Amino acid sequence: MVMSLELLEYPACPLCGLNQPKPESPYQFSPYQVVECGGCGLWYLSPRLKEAEILKIYANSDYFKGGGAHGYAQTQGSYLEQATGLRLTFRQLLKKIRQQGLLGEDLLEIGCGYGFLLAEAKPFCQRLSATDFDAEAVARVRETGVTVYLGGVDALPEGQQFDTVISTGVIEHIYNPHEFLQRLKPHLKPNAWVILAAPPMNSFWLKLQGKNWASFKIPEHVVYYDKNTLKQLFVMNGAVETRYIPYSQAYPLGMIAEKLGVVVPRWVQGWNIWLPATMFAMAGRFTT
């Protein structure tokens, strides 16, 4: 499929605003490439699809179902087929968040998908709310009794506030991360925690796999953080305290095998295997 150049744009660094990427990126995905900012060291996609075009992809219910050109496209990797592994992962993440005293009674999840994290959080929170761009996912989660808004942060009612906001696997999709946090801040109670989770750009998986790194999800992933650049994002937007939360992720063995290009027997493909250093979370506390 030939990509029309009219659908592409060449952004400045989404973190520091400098428009001086280092030359000769090793991560080429024609017509896209992942470049490193010459100022702050953030890696980001340039060129990238214009935001209006990428939002069309997210609004398609096939994004979560697998088998398409975008989203959860692997045979073993549809969102529902990962349900058990995702719930195990979210259970572990929430345990770490609770141990650090970051999980409050009013929880908002940005980008809830089919609600697996919310299901794990239900025993610990008084009120659960969420947003997502997928209408089918929103309808599915509403059936569980959670208040869900179709869209992003802008879909939240004016004046509604939360003491914990969690967003896993979303910030790497956000075109303007500063605007994202600034629009979120009016919905934060005093001393609220915002917890953002993303794949680490400096992981050994990237060193091992190179261009075949599973988190090079092109063109959806437009920013690639490590713990330093994600901390910078929080501090630049007024966080008075940050916490680094590393965690492992559980994946179906069949999905791992497919990513590595190997074949495993069908009867073991559903086994969930814990992989370290595939995700990390950074939490920021905001006083206002």
From TrEMBL:
<dbReference type="GO" id="GO:0032259">
    <property type="term" value="P:methylation"/>
</dbReference>
<dbReference type="Pfam" id="PF13489">
    <property type="entry name" value="Methyltransf_23"/>
</dbReference>
<keyword id="KW-0489">Methyltransferase</keyword>
<keyword id="KW-0808">Transferase</keyword>
<dbReference type="InterPro" id="IPR029063">
    <property type="entry name" value="SAM-dependent_MTases_sf"/>
</dbReference>
<protein>
    <submittedName>
        <fullName>Methyltransferase family protein</fullName>
    </submittedName>
</protein>
<dbReference type="GO" id="GO:0008168">
    <property type="term" value="F:methyltransferase activity"/>
</dbReference>
